[in-house]
Inverse folding.
């Protein structure tokens, strides 16, 4: 059915799709810009619409409010979704206030920009392209644009989590050394953050946030809980539980940290041994596909040359 359309009709179809997309994008951007203003008015107890208004003013204000509510219902996330995205962005290393609008702007650009590029390419260089093929490429680009920012965010979170896991035993060793030297836990955390800055910046940033939370008056269990959630490591959660139990029971913090540090070092060694043991299995496929045929070629090529010379 799509292949039977004329090129002019296909151009109109793609143009109509882009106009609808841009209209939706304008609605979303307008809703996003006014979202913070509306929420601040609600928190302050100030009504967003005055009580005394005439019909003409109400009719003028009704249309933007309806468009805004419609845009929020379609694409603008709620407070829970915003909190979830903010948490994911913090795990990926984006801590600024503008990270959420930038993330949604990137999603919008990744959705619309490939459509513009496809339209320009089709109008200038590929006029003879079938309409069905054009629409299929457009749908594929839409799917890729929808899922690419989320996949990039997951990849970045996974990468930072691996870096934090590699540096966590070193952090525990430095923390134990500072505690046994006579420093308090807060001062020890500050020194560890300064020492680990060059080797493991992921841990440094999260330790700085932990220190800021402690300075702001947050309780130590809550601050360490947030630290563990930002890192996304089971070791950090275990550290929080260990510190909480040590504080409640009044046991020696240095001895508990020493035991925990030894456990972290043994876990890192076990992960390294696991990777070393899985290396032969991973090398099997490239060995069969690339190395083994090359060896066979090197072995049988001289014999093949001699046989071809003898029979030639």
């Amino acid at each position: 059915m799509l292949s039977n359309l004329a090129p002019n009709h296909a151009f109109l179809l793609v143009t109509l799709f882009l106009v609808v997309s841009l209209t939706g994008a304008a609605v979303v951007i307008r809703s996003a810009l006014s979202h913070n203003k509306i929420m601040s008015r609600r928190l302050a107890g100030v009504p967003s619409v005055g009580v005394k208004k005439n019909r003409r003013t109400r009719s003028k204000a009704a249309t933007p409010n309806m468009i805004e509510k419609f845009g929020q219902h379609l694409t603008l996330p709620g407070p829970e979704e915003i909190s979830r995205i903010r948490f994911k962005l913090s795990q990926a290393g984006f801590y600024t206030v503008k990270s959420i609008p930038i993330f949604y702007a990137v999603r919008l650009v990744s959705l619309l920009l490939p459509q513009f590029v496809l339209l320009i390419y089709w109008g200038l260089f590929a006029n003879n392209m079938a309409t069905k093929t054009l629409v299929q490429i457009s749908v594929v680009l839409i799917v890729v644009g929808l899922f690419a920012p989320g996949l990039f965010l997951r990849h970045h979170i996974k990468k930072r989590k691996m870096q934090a896991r590699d540096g966590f035993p070193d952090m525990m060793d430095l923390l134990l050394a500072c505690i046994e030297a006579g420093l308090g836990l807060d001062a020890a955390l500050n020194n560890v953050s300064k020492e680990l800055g060059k080797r493991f910046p992921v841990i440094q940033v999260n330790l700085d946030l932990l220190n800021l939370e402690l300075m702001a008056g947050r309780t130590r269990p809550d601050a360490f809980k947030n630290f563990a959630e930002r890192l996304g490591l089971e070791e950090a959660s275990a550290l929080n539980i260990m510190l909480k139990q040590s504080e409640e029971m009044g046991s020696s913090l240095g001895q508990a940290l020493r035991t925990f540090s030894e456990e972290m070092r043994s876990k890192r060694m076990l992960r390294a041994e696991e990777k070393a043991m899985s290396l032969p299995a991973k090398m099997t496929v490239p060995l069969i596909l690339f190395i083994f045929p090359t060896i066979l070629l090197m072995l049988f090529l001289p014999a093949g040359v001699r046989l071809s010379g003898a029979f030639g």
Observations:
- The two ends are 61 Å apart (CA to CA).
- The chain has two domains: 2-157, 162-269.
